Amino acid sequence: MMEPVENVVLHVADVQKNFGGLRALSDIDLQVEEGKTHAIIGPNGAGKSTLLNVIIGRIPPTSGAVIFDGTVLTGRAPHEINQLGISRVFQTPEIFPDLTVLQNVMVPAFAKRDGDFRVNMLRSVESEKEIREEAEHLLEDFGLIGRRDDHAGALSRGDKRRLELAMCLIQHPRLLLLDEPTAGMSRHDTNTTIALLKKIKERGMTKVIIEHDMHVVFSLADKISVLAQGRIIATGLPHEIKEDPRVQEAYLGGVEAE
Amino acid sequence: MTSFMSRRDLFLFAGFTGVVLLLPILAAPFGAAYPDLLQRFMIFGIFATGFNILFGLTGYLSFGHAAFFGIGSYAAMWSFKLLSLNAVPALLFALIVSGVFALAIGYVSLRRSGIYFSILTLAFAQMCYNLAYSVLTPITNGETGLRMALDDPRYLDRLFAEPAAGMPVPSLFGMSLGGWNGFYFSAFFLIASFLLAMRIFNSPFGLALKGIKSNQTRMNYTGFNTRPYTLTAFVISGMLAGLAGALLVVTDPLAGAERMRWTASGEVVLMTILGGVGTLVGPVIGAWIIKYFENIFSSFNANVLNNFYSFLPDGVREVAVTISSKFVGEGWHLSLGLVFVLIVVFLPGGLMEGFRRIAAWLGRMGNGSKRASQVGVQPAE
């Protein structure tokens, strides 16, 4: 059923993950095309977050491998994976609560420019004009420029998510992983976030998005994989997925009935 | 200069340098203007400044920094004994030795964070302390402490000249480092340490350390290899502790193991918290205040107290003297403890937060009165 995919940038190859006797993921084979938004959907407990954690290297798979642009990610430290060009948005925003909003966005830019370790003491942060201007630009796009000097810990949850997205985008990642980017958001905030994510799409960045909000998925995804009980039961274009009877049985039916 | 230091930082640095160099005059009204005490201000200012780079900036609370202080003292003393009475090689040697120890201890301790890190550093410091008293007695001279002797080899000095008669004392290229010379010598290093701390605070390196303190997980997923960052901060702060220990030997040529005790490690934590964790000037102020009150309070005895309370009638005076004597002299740590509790409870940001609050309050008062005087003339800008 799976036709060959061109320009594969991320390949999850035959991944299995067991937690003790429990099989969380089995026979996961996923190919993500360069520049596309690939959504992974599935009911709660289907293994979506486990899969994302395997991709990012937080959880080692029991067998199989994750390959990004010819490099095996399995077994690498988080900072190495980031340096390869993969950024991640967490389900609960991971930001720097004690730094200002502007500093939050500047820090990742230094990792992108200076690599994973550099003792740079001779310049001051204030004099890093290029990075500061780019950060301010992003904050403007994200509607956070008014809060640039506030401590990020004081932001609302929705603003924190937007900030985290800006922190990922300043690194110009080749692959952006989004773990339920709209979880716990109001309808209004969800729609602003969708608009933002659509805007990023124009930059041609590859995205893997884990989501159970169908509205979000069908507004953004170029391709959808459905995960149920640790297996991928279908992969295809959004309209194919909508019409797939197995998917409806496993997941969509329940949601559309709401 | 603009990329190196902003105008505001330049003012701060100039102000700090000015205050330090003018201390012999500024401290006079407090009865603290003598070289021995002011030199301690400088030395413990360096100690606290270095400690703050690790604790205040990176968020790792070391409970064993006195080990590096003590190691610096021993290293400097051995340089005086073996190489030269010149203070420069002694300080260099102390920096290298304490740096090597910090690298080794930091490498192991930084595998853990939070309370486990604190306990590991405490354990290492206690090991250093006990070793100095036991196995390492040939190097440390145990309880007696390490001091200079007339028949020390001092190979470097002997290459150039016959040793002078009399007890050897540390010097700087032939210039004596006693009295005010010693103060200005230490002041130079405090100012240099402050400049280093300022550079770190304002640089991308310092921003990375602040990021580690704020959210290490995010730092990792943002592409930073945090281990070498924390290790660099640890080594820098350990070396500054070693420098401070070496300077203390320059003034007071006796290196003893009690400088490595856990109470000494605790003292630098107090200094930093009292002044303001994570601020530039706070730890230095905290160090000065603790050293000042240690000096003042610990010198009080029953006689001084009797004079102080002389205005009270006889019976009351004795009660007052008995109660207050518990807080001074040997018991001055009781006063320190009380002040510390008050600060932590009411001013968690230390004295610097107190200053900020006062400044904000004065600012509001100023604005308020300005606005009041402008009422009816024109709206405030």
Keyword list:
heterodimer; A: 258 residues; alpha/beta; Rossmann fold; six-stranded mixed beta sheet; four-stranded antiparallel beta sheet; 9 helices; 10 strands; globular; B: 381 residues; mainly alpha; ABC transporter involved in vitamin B12 uptake, BtuC; two-stranded antiparallel ribbon; two-stranded antiparallel sheet; 17 helices; 71% helix; disordered C terminus; ABC_transp_permease (chain B); membrane (chain B); Branched-chain amino acid ABC transporter permease (chain B); transmembrane (chain B)
Your description of this structure?
The complex is a heterodimer of chains A (258) and B (381). With 258 residues, chain A is of the alpha/beta class. Chain A has a single domain (8-256), classed as P-loop containing nucleotide triphosphate hydrolases (Rossmann fold, 3-Layer(aba) Sandwich). Chain A contains 9 helices and 10 strands. In chain A, helix 3 (101-114) crosses helix 4. The model of chain A has no long low-confidence stretch (mean pLDDT 87). Chain B has a single domain (7-298), classed as ABC transporter involved in vitamin B12 uptake, BtuC (Orthogonal Bundle). In chain B, the strands form 2 sheets. Chain B has a two-stranded antiparallel ribbon with strand order 1-4. Chain B has a two-stranded antiparallel sheet with strand order 2-3. In chain B, a hairpin with a 2-residue loop joins strand 2 and strand 3. In chain B, helix 2 packs antiparallel against helix 11, helix 8 crosses helix 9 and helix 9 packs across helix 11. Residues 371-381 of chain B have low confidence and may be disordered. The chains are: A alpha/beta (258), B mainly alpha (381).
Task: List SSEs of chain A in N-to-C order.
Answer: EEEHEEHEHHHEHEHEEHH
Overall pLDDT score of chain A: 87
Low-confidence stretches of chain A: none
Strand order of the largest sheet of chain B: 1-4
CATH class of chain B, named Mainly Alpha
Please write the CATH class name of chain A: Alpha Beta
Q: Mean pLDDT of chain B, rounded to whole units? A: 88
Give the largest chain-chain interface (CB within 8 Å): A-B, 39 and 33 residues
Question: Helix segment count of chain A?
Answer: 9
How do the helices and strands follow one another from N- to C-terminus of chain B?
Answer: HHHHHHEHEEHHHHEHHHHHH
- Strand percentage of chain A lies at 15-25%
- Provide the spatial order of strands within the biggest beta sheet of chain A: 6-7-8-3-9-10
Amino- and carboxy-terminal Cα gap of chain B:
34 Å
Rounded to an integer in angstroms, the radius of gyration calculated over CA atoms of chain B is 23 Å
Report the β-strand fraction of chain B as a percent range: under 5%
Number of domains of chain A: 1
Count of DSSP strands of chain B = 4
Give the oligomeric state: heterodimer
Q: What is the number of helices of chain B?
A: 17
